[in-house]
User: Fold these one by one.
Assistant:
Number 1:
Amino acid sequence: MQSFNWQTVERDSFFTRLDFRTKLTIMIVITLIAFTWESPIAGGMLTFLVALSSLLVGVKVNYLATILKFMLPFQLILLIIMGFFNIEQVKHLTGKTELTTLLMIGNSKMSVEGTLYGLNIIFKTLTMVFIVPLVIFTTDLNKMIVSLTKARVPYKIVFIFSSTLRLFPLLAAESKGIIDAQRLRGLAIERMGWLKKARVYATIAVPLILNAMSKSQKLDLVLQSKAFSGDPNRTFLHESVLKFTDYLIMFCFVVLLLVVIVLYFWLGVGKFPWLIY
Amino acid sequence: MPFKVIPEGDERKIEEVNKCAIDGAPIAYIVVLAAIVTALSFIPFSIILGSGGAMPLSQAVFPLMGWLLGPIAGATASGIGTLVASFLSPLTVGNPVLSLVGPTVGSFLAGTMVVGKKRRGWWLGLSIILLIPFFLYSHRAIGQNGIPTNIFIAGTLIEWSGFLLFILPTRILFTRWITSSNLQLVALGLFGGTWMISGLSHLCAATLSYSIIGWPLAIWNMLIPVIPFENLIRSTVGMVIGVGVIAGLRAIGLVKSREAIY
Amino acid sequence: MEIIAQLDKVSYLYPSSSDLVLKNISLEIRKGEFLGIIGPTGAGKTTLCLTLNGIVPQFYGGRFFGYATVAGLDTLSYPVSTFARYVGAVFEDPENQLLATSVENEIAFTLENLKVPREEIIARIPRVLAAVRLEGMEKKQPSELSGGQKQRLAIAAALAVQPALLILDEPTSQLDPVGSKEVFATIKELNRSLGITIVMVSHAAEEMAENADRIAILREGMIEKIGTPAEIYSQVEYLEQNALRPPQVAQTFALIARERISTGKIPVTLKEGLALLEPLKSYYRPSSLESTSYSSPTSPLISVKNLSHTYLSGTKALENVSLDIHSGEYLLIIGQNGAGKSTLVKHFLNLLSSTKGQVFIEGRPIENLSVSDLSRSIGYVAQNPDNQIFNITVEKEVSFALTNLGYPVKVVEERTSESLAAMGLLESRHLHPLSLSKGDRARVVIAAILAMEPKIIVFDEPTTGQDYQGAKAILEVTRQLHQMGKTIIVITHHLYLMPEYAQRVIIMGQGTILLDAPIRSAYHEIDLLSKTYLTPPQAVLISEDLAKLSGHRSDLLTPNEIASCFNYAIF
């Protein structure tokens, strides 16, 4: 299993000093823009900007490279499928009746338009994935929690979030112990086909869930003894303060989103044929 | 019942503490089950034939969260568990905003499968709301992208079958089976319930992902047998896990959440 | 003396109980005292503790009789959150009670809930960390701490509210000896230097005798006796009849007294006991006891040759370990956490691959065998049996492995029945394993392993988290299996439990074998044991002192052995 520690960048930058609420706003706006745009050019620029920003704030290039490597097979398949099979949709989007051939394999044609559409999807999904380390890895967990509470997220929800982060590694270790225990009872997992393996993995969940639920009763006691009531009216050790810069950036990004939407519908900026057809 | 030793002290009136809960489910339960969802997000148990990625074990337990905790607490546990997983490894889980849809919808809908008087009318309102993603999905596919209607219907088998099972008395039947003391009936209820709920949550998630990817006709044709097969695996695994968990919880005698239906 | 908490004819019935769990308890807790609570399992000790912070009955409901007041407040007239300000609570499981993602957050949590101002929280954190000797660890994650450190963090978090009373429910039962020592030292310091009132439930008789001001014995919901440790722990016969373990020094002197040798009072601490040995030396005539050194002409069952293991993180877990284990042995492996015990055992099971060296089982290299193949030869019982329960009936659980290994149905049925009978579980075969007691759940796992008819069975920390009765019950099962011809390997910290069972001891430290010797001589390697922070049982230390006083060397291990060397008739 991979390592699941909460990652943070080593570099202290202007971006890391922003409040989490600001970064959340940025993440939501960028995700919405990526969702809206269909143009591979616009999408590509956005992906490039997000990736560059990530690198500038200290997200390791290896991490982004791993994402790319992991997604590459799926992206290539998508590109090929769109190139060969996305006909009606791109005709509709480009207003063309005949598509431009990029490649012929036997009788099958791979179109430029279809391929560009595939590229658009790739950029969309990359942006939506790259934005996560940019926002999450540059935020101290403690500040994130306080920030969420100040953003009027119910404290109970925030508490569940932080406790999940604390408990999950224990469960991950326990699941490994359960798998080992099953192997020690004669289950040759390594020799199984995927269907049998699926059944075995399913049975890991049962003791994991039951043990966790048994412990939850004790956890309830602990919470009571620590005066926990879920009341948001509490003090906080850590602070999260919105500065003028935060307000300004949030405002700018909201305006950006509005501008993008207006330009999309009014001038077709970001639509599939933009700057191409 | 007479005590072996007679209490000498005065009997006192007890005002029970307001336990910290969401919709009647203790916070502690939600915390541990959210952590379970996170842990299971990283255990692949099957290849998703459709995307080539791995199907995480968490997908099989989203309905179970609803049945154990109720709709709101179940959706909270599934949502937060998935969110944490996406923050820890966006590689595995994907964008936090998008990956939340399936889990929260699934657990919420599962939790609304009630047999009593309380919330018995929720299914009607939810059924009407579920027509919205149906409309959006079909409009985009058939209207905009030119997918033939028969292909769309074939390709959304799990969605409309899930919807039919939800609006028909089968929903109540599955619930009764899940609450039965006969574990074989529990298994049937869990299988049917997971098929139904997974179909509906797939509807919502697919509407969103289709609006991003918009797969062409050839992919629709390919997915016609694949998606129901994946749902079959999900339902089978959900049944296996669910039976084990429910039997175990009954044996332990754990205090149930107020809205739990097992 | 000021009374900080008082129970006046308190009785309590849980909603699901058929009878009262607490019965007419009247108790005064004085400010600054260290009150120990002992009693067999099910006596009501935890319930009694939870009465002091209002959780009983406000959290559970049920029926409550009598009055409980803490810091002058009636526990039924104020919400539980009010008592969180006056009563700090520390529970048994270090993992389960730490909820935050860093040390400082953990300490701050209760204070934040109580709306203590931020500046005050910031001021208290370093103070409480210093009190528990965790200075400088504010930013660490709880997962980075050892077991003892985690419990000290839990104590710090409880201390931060500046409580009138600190209740600790078996805080050391899950810890290794180092962790246990640290926690007791911390509690003692808090009590003696800061005057914190302590109420503590613990089976650690030796430590309780040293530290407590008073001990209360709880049995079937009633306080049977209350007195100083000297008054309580000296009543050896009474304690043993009630399934409670007195300190070994008290046991030893009580047994000597039965030889009609006057020892004066029965000492309850080692220091007192050693001081009383001088006048008794004339009655002491040890006989030479045979050291059960084990040597077998047959080839070893498990053979380890120059085994080294380095984890990916770079930690050297094992360094050049070599040993042979023969058929029919009962082997004890001891050492601190991190000494390499579990790593070594995992190599026997092929759960880990060696960096260097080899392991052989019945002459075959282990790397040629899969984990599932090995399960026919070597069974493993983990510390928590619940992680090894996968089925919904006891019968299915026991037959699980046999089905996996492809045995014919008839063989599966026969072996399952035999295993169930051997573990006394035939009547429970159709029950869900989780509906059984903790001890019976452990038996289910053992039965499941036994069904595979392995030659070797490994028990990893079987006594941790168990009370004395529970621990003895598990060890009796190991004895039973040993008598059946199985080779038994036990990993445990509880040295005092093992002399009646183990023949050979391996002491591990820093990934190497420090000593491999028969139990009799191994337990008397006092210096080596203390280097690895292991304390030999009090009986061993008494034996050492007797040897120095009398000039007669005899490596005695148990109070019974020591007492048998005293003879009134000699004088």
Number 2:
Amino acid sequence: MENQAVVLTPQDKADLQDLVACPVCDTLARYSSVPQGGQGRCARCHHVLIMPRENAMTRIVMLAVTGAILMVSAVSFPFLTIETHGLRQQASVLDTILAYSDGLMVPLSLAMAALIVVLPLMRLAAILYTVAPMALWHHAARGAAQAFRLAETLKPWAMAEVFIVGVAVALVKVGGLATLTIGPAFWAFAALVLVTVMNDNFMSSLIIWKTLEARGRI
Amino acid sequence: MENAGSARTYLTARDAGLINCTTCGRVSSADETACARCGAALASRDTQSLQKVWAWWIAGIIAFVPANLYPMLKTATLGTETESTLLGGILELVHHGSLGIAAIVFFASIVIPASKFLAVAYLALSIGRPSRFTAHRRHQIYKVVEFVGRWSMIDVFVVAILTALVQLGSAASIHPGIAAVSFALSVAFTMLSAQSFDARLIWDADKEPHT
């Protein structure tokens, strides 16, 4: 994306469609096509502006559906079991969330539920709502722009992958003292993290916005 | 992206009398208040950005103090109860010989939050002043701060998992301490502080072509 010295007159607003401004440094550039698998970077600050991927929409839909299924199984299957001296304790993801449900700490339980389960699910749902109609029927659904804006806002707050690293740390902490069994929910969570990372790799938000505008009723 | 030697001037949306939408990259004319593509509110620069950054920054520091002073974890083994703070838990890990894990927790819950406070403060202070670092360097600092912030939440999750798991009656049981709440708040506040920062401010000062 090279940035030519663009001469603009106020009246040719239609011409603005060809321009893109870097969200990081405000530099204008012409929206040019980048080969599949490549990256279009801002000439000044090198921020990745667009990142087209082959069949991106189909892949995003499939990965988001997979992610949602994995999240449901992560919440419903057994998560971790600890055993020592004949004593046995099983914990599900829900038990982990409820760990802070004592007295003053209740709000933290709610926050945990949001960060680990609710927000990641909401984000997947919002992505599906934005992309699936375009992948299946070409046109975007009503309110797709709001849904995608929500997905972008939620991104830093969906912390499933932070949680899985937390699990690893906790396992090492108690590993020496008792026998641990890792249940299917753990693997579902680990897979969910991979799926989310792959999904984010296929999603170039600028391209999705452009496509939404071209096909949608925004 | 390369040719560091060539001096170039870059035309920004503001210089062209246009407004850039930071959500979707659309360029709008200066009289529009909401982006026609994504519906986000438009502002050439977020003039209140620094105020918001400092407000969340101070809230984060305030919450960080009790997070370090009060117990994070209460362990009861055979009738005796011990309380451990953030730092205490790390020392315990070192004691057990799990140096790797101790290092992870030390970085995630002490080094990262502390350096985040410093980095955000530095970035906010460097706006409108001559800076030792180039805009590129400061932008890198900002990206690292933004990326790394959420990982500090690890400790809150570890405490929750331990609490859910280690409930073995009188043999051993673990309960969370109140520091977990303030720690979680501190992480959330610093994330908000970093998000309020308008990255375009870093580049505005860098008007002269860089070499």
